[in-house]
Amino acid sequence: MNAVQRFIRSRVLLLTAAILIAAMCLSVLVQSQSQAALSRTVDENSRGLYDVLVQAKAPTGALLQPEIANGTGGISFEQLDAIRKLSGTSVAAPISLVSRVTQNLEAPRLDAMDYLGYNAGLAGTATADQAAGATAPEQWPAAESVLSDNTKKYRLTASAVTSDGVSEQTLFKSTAEGTLGKARLVEEKAAGGTSIRIAAPRDETGIKFPSPAGGSEHNLFNLSVSLPLAPEVTESVVAVDPAAERALLGSAGDFLAPLEKAPPADARDAGAIGRYFEGLFTNGIRLDELQEGPDFLGVKLKYWAPLMTQYQQAKRTGQLTADSQAIPLIVRSGTSLDLKYNVRIEEIDDAGKVVQEVGTVSRSLDKDYLPFVSKDPFVLSWPGSTDHSSLLGATGNFNQGLYTPAQWSTDFAAAPRYTDGDTAANGAVDKTAVPGEWVTVNRLPEKSANGTPVDQTQREPVDERAYRENLETGKKTAAPLAMVYGTFDPSAVAAAAGDVNKLPLGGYDPTPFTLVKDAAGNDVPATELEPSLSATGLASQSAGAITDYYGLAAARGYTENAAVIDAVRVRAKAPGSWKEAQPDVEQLAADIREMGLEATIVAGSAREDASIFVPGYYKDDAGKESALGTVQQSWVRQNAADAVTGSLSGTNVTLLFLTLCGAALLTGASTVSYIRKRRSEAGTLRAMGWTQRRIRSWVLEEFGVGAVLLAVVGVVLSLVSWSLATALVCVAVLVLYAAAALFAAQQLRHRDVIDQEPQHDERLIQVDSPLTFANRQLSTNKFNTLSLAVAVGVFGAAVGGLIALLIDIPRAAGASALSGLAAAAVAMPSILLALAGVVVGLVLTLVTGRFELNAKRQYLGILQAMGWNPDMLRQVRLFENALVGTVALPLGVLGALGIGLLLAPYAALWAGVAGLVAVLCWIPIATKVVQ
Amino acid sequence: MTNPTNVQRSRRGGSGEVPLQTRANTIVKAADHATPLELSDITIRYGGGKGGAEAVSVVEGFDLTLHAGEMHCVAGRSGSGKTSILTVGAGLTLPTSGRVFWEGDSLESMGDDEIADRRRALIGYVDQGGALIDGMSALENVLLPAVPDGEVDQRRDMAKDLLDLVGLGRRMRHRPAQLSGGERQRVAIARALILGTRVLVVDEPTASLDRASANRIISILKDTTSDGIAVLVASHDHELVRLSDSLTELI
């Protein structure tokens, strides 16, 4: 029988070679998978929309939190041009925070259908040929009303509730009572004829909420009750350059295409534009023309409507000056503001007792709200009402008051200052927000839209930390008037910007805050904070961006071009991944710094979660402060790609090391098994006259076959993967195998038995029970005991590692952008490796467990023959396994903890627990198996 | 092999030739309490399981009554069923059919635990080659049967006496690997006697031993019978066969 036949016949050697080959393949798989995932992740994510963030020279930290309200400005147009002219610059996109826009919504009202039917005297000019869409008089329906001929007494309870994402806050709750009834037509003789008017029933008192609500009145189609509160909504606006912005955003910036060419100077003259349209209306304009409108300087009339509203408002209040600018503005296609208005209607008797519940109506200002163009957001309809006002068609009146125009403010909320805390393993940083001074918010405007004082008792103002800063606006004030040009889809912009390197400085879509712990530190369901209506909360919602930097200069109060650019985002010309482009990007940043500007390299950065504890957020009337709790927000962390690279490389090395450790253990176990099986065979050969040298050759030849096999596979794998690590692993495996061969040859050599004196050690524990018997057996066979314990420990550690990975992968996938992607990409090879570890551990336990199986069966038979009953024999087996488990337990738990800390630090504890449970479960199972 | 013919020969009093009896002449006495071990119509078959292998009948209708102080030898060639009869008699395996009585009580009515307890008190079993537990000294091996009853300390002196008795008083701290085959066999006999056994079941005690060692073992076994201990021994050692009180020769 030659060496190859002997190698094949020796199943142990065959198994050893197969295990080592599997280990080599596994290591290659792990490397290739994780390296590919790493390369892919870094390539796809380490370069965002831009590479360098340029700011006016100021101290900057490592974290690039969008500074929503840090609008200190400082970069001039000349500096912007200089940046653009640098040879390494591809795109230089300026961005500035302009201001906050305060939108006073139209006063809400409750309309109750009280339609009086057609009356020529009231319908007036509402005929088919006078108003587009008007219904001919003979086709008007009969009169109808939800009110009764005789007045009834009603109680209206109006309330407004807002949500800041944490809890609902009732802005106010107000009640008013009065009688209402069906309106009547009153004909009165007047000079020159008969006048017709709509009058309330004679005994109607009407209903009036406190000022500034105007009370109730009848008109042609409705009884209209003015409701309290004009909600105030404040949002932020940034300024961008359309051409540069589109270059950054790609197709997601297509909405900017019409604005790539800056409007001419006369397009920014708000007075000129207003006068043009006033003249147009004075001369007459058809409704269809009004709807589509003539274009003015290439812009359709409908886009000028907001400007016209502001123009009229400013003109009436005397704010319109020769310097007033029209600012092209794009806005979000919706917001996440949440404000709900409820009116409860009850019919009551004279004593105030409820006779009948008429119903509750509500309106919600939600995602459909659009600043500047929203109409009638809070018109509520009495239950059962039908809107007949469309009978008149579209009047085409272009009246002030269609909605209340927005007011611009340069006094806006600034981001809080943050203090860094502990840094977690994944780079997340704990932070504490440092608030500014207390300010009173939730306060009604000082004056209503018509200039009358506002009853401040309608709301209860609340003291909040404001984080307010005043912006230096220059010497001369100006009145920027918004020209809403279009809307953008924030999700499309976010998708274009990617999860890494989102537009900073409060760009289009600031990263949201998520509340994770309450003020007491207790975990709460993750709640994404919605924008606060108070305008002072942590979260701020960007309304949009103006696209005219000359208009921005006006908004800042400058009459000429000035240093109004807060930051410039620069993309380098160098193509490829961050690693490829790094030298060019760094050179570009150095060039920019030479211009006296602050240049921060953003490429290679990634977002990481930061926990922010926000203290002293609320203060009640008694002055008691309460914290908001802990919120999480994603931050931009520089060089995160490098950190991920290092982390994954470390993980690779760890995985390879663990693979080799497992292979070494299994090789050791199988070699010992081989030696035991061949010992008698070697003795027989010796008896046949074989020399020691020949026996050693006989052993080494068998191992040599396996070594050749391993070497061939190793070379092939190294060439295929073309990786030094693979070659090293293969060499390590070969060395391992050669050591096993030499060890086996050494162990099979003849040894002269020397008659010895009794070796029994009296210090040994006396055998007087199944437990002490098991202990003696294990201590007699220390090598087997230790081998089995190590095998069980490996099994426990592998189970722990697998559990940790399974637990940690979902967390890692959601932890941050880059590390999450990388973790998700290497999840499968990691799980495969952990599963392989579990299998290796099981095989190890089986192999080592079989070493003494026959001997164990023999002495169990002896014990049975001498009268040990089955229960005692079971105890012997149980105690043996329990003792092995006791040795294996620290190995398994510590091994699992170690693997957990290396591969899944957040689940390391679970890994330890899983390792403990796995080893504990092995004890009864092994007891059951060895019957 | 199918249905081998078992021939039983009895010799009483240890003197003169005993008549050879065929199975039809087998003497079957009624069980009584003075009879420590009785085998009745024992049949042992192996095989015939799920694999479709043909069943091999090793022993057919074997009867034996072993009295106190009697040494009965079961002789026969290898594979004739000697060890099987011994393990059945010691209650280590169950016969295919037939009954085993220990001091008049049938094993059929006993559970595993009761059999183990009764075996410990009644029967000392000495395996072929004197199987000892590695890692334990000769003395510890002798004391092992006392572990279940928690009498290790109480029996320690007796164990030493027994080892003295079998000529191993100076080797009681030796481990099995340090003892010769005959010495291991003697340790095993001492271990079988540690609990005051009334029946000694010994399998091939002199196999692979030199004559002098074999004679020493035989002498020990013979001495035990004088203490009223019944000995059931399987052997084809002529000297042992000659000195036994009765003989069953399996063909």
Automatic annotation (TrEMBL), chain B:
It comes from the Bacteria. Pfam families: ABC_tran (PF00005). Residues 1-20 are annotated as: Disordered. Residues 37-251 form the ABC transporter domain. Keywords: ATP-binding, Lipoprotein, Nucleotide-binding. One of its GO terms (cellular component) is plasma membrane. One of its GO terms (molecular function) is transmembrane transporter activity. InterPro entries: AAA+_ATPase, ABC_transporter-like_ATP-bd, ABC_transporter-like_CS, ABC_transpr_LolD-like, P-loop_NTPase. This is ABC-type lipoprotein export system, ATPase component. The lineage of its organism: Bacteria, Bacillati, Actinomycetota, Actinomycetes, Micrococcales.
